[in-house]
């Protein structure tokens, strides 16, 4: 579902994506409006589902999570019960930052953040003990070149 946005809405969203910790006064000044209309627009965008959960971004490496693995999963299981069990296993593991079901030869891709290779192996062993998986390929990211949560609005 698409929501109609005007130029002021887009400016507000760009500011919030850039730094959601800004005060309403700062955002209003930057978008050329005043505080109350900006607050009303933010509330409208939140009610429409355009703005979701607000959070902070943490530095994974500074917190000791130095290894990022992209895990490619192929399965021969496609039944609803298996999918439900797999989804629960992913949701129960905080190491999994992202999970996507794919079209093509690979069924799923996970982004897994852990301290090191040994911690990845602990994650992997727990996952395969819980759900049946046909093939797993883990790719270690050597360097993060770009990472953003910002949409090109």
TrEMBL record:
Residue ranges occupied by any HTH asnC-type domain in the UniProt entry: 5-66
Key word DNA-binding present: yes
Membrane-spanning segments: none
Keyword list, A-Z: DNA-binding, Transcription, Transcription regulation
UniProt key word Transcription: yes
Entries under SUPFAM superfamilies matching the protein: Dimeric alpha+beta barrel, Winged helix' DNA-binding domain
Alphabetized Pfam families for the sequence: AsnC_trans_reg, HTH_24
InterPro entries from the UniProt entry: ArsR-like_HTH (IPR011991), AsnC-type_HTH_dom (IPR000485), Dimeric_a/b-barrel (IPR011008), Tscrpt_reg_AsnC-like (IPR019888), Tscrpt_reg_AsnC/Lrp_C (IPR019887), Tscrpt_reg_HTH_AsnC-type_CS (IPR019885), WH-like_DNA-bd_sf (IPR036388), WH_DNA-bd_sf (IPR036390)
PANTHER family attached to this UniProt entry: DNA-BINDING TRANSCRIPTIONAL ACTIVATOR DECR, LEUCINE-RESPONSIVE REGULATORY PROTEIN
Protein name per the record: Lrp/AsnC family transcriptional regulator
Natural source organism: Pseudohalocynthiibacter aestuariivivens
């Amino acid at each position: 579902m698409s929501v109609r946005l005007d130029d002021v809405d887009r400016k507000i969203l760009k500011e919030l994506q850039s730094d959601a910790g800004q005060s309403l006064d700062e955002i209003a000044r930057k978008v050329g409006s005043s505080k109350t209309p900006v607050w009303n627009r933010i509330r409208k965008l939140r009610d429409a589902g355009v703005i979701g959960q607000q959070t902070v971004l943490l530095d994974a490496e500074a917190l000791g999570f130095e290894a990022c693995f992209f895990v490619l999963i192929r399965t021969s299981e496609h039944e609803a019960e298996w999918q439900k069990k797999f989804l629960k296993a992913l949701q129960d593991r905080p190491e999994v930052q992202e999970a996507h079901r794919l079209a093509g030869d690979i069924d799923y891709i996970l982004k897994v953040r852990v301290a090191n290779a040994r911690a990845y192996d602990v994650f992997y062993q727990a996952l395969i003990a819980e759900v049946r998986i046909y093939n797993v390929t883990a790719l270690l990211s050597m360097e993060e070149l770009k990472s953003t949560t910002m949409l090109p609005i």
